Amino acid sequence: MTTPDHVPTLRFIARCIHDDIRDSQFDGLTGDEAATAIAKRIEEAAEREEDRQDDSQGLSAGERAEVRQRWHESRRRADSEYA
Q1: Which structural domain, as residue segments, surrounds residue 42?
Q2: Which of 6, 24, 32, 77 is 20 to 30 A from 17, alpha carbon to alpha carbon?
Q3: Where is this region: Disordered (predicted)?
Q4: Which residues of the chain have pLDDT under 50?
Q5: Residue 5 CB: number of other CB atoms within 10 A?
Q6: Is 67 helix (H, G, I), strand (E, B) or coil?
Q7: pLDDT given for residue 19 in this prediction
Q8: Cα distances (Å, whole numbers) of residue 5 to 1, 10, 51, 73, 83
Q9: Cα pseudo-dihedral 61, 37, 42, 17, rounded to 10
Q10: DSSP string, 14-45
Q11: Number of compact structural domains in the chain
Q12: What is the pLDDT of residue 21?
């Protein structure tokens, strides 16, 4: 279910995918390879956006690293549950 809180995130993801689809570096990749590359780009862009937001909230680099580590751990757990 999509809530109003999800709209900015969905727009962000759509923009990343749109930019990547137009990127010629994906020519010749299989669907899975392209999906993996796009997912990695989205994750990197999301981390940059989180850093920008954290900076505006005054979080230190150490606090950002701790939050990111917890997020990656929860993502790995979720990925393993659905694998």
Answers
A1: 4-82
A2: 77
A3: 41-83
A4: 1-2
A5: 7
A6: helix
A7: 67
A8: 11, 9, 19, 23, 28
A9: 160
A10: HHHHHHHHH-GGGTT--HHHHHHHHHHHHHHH
A11: 1
A12: 66
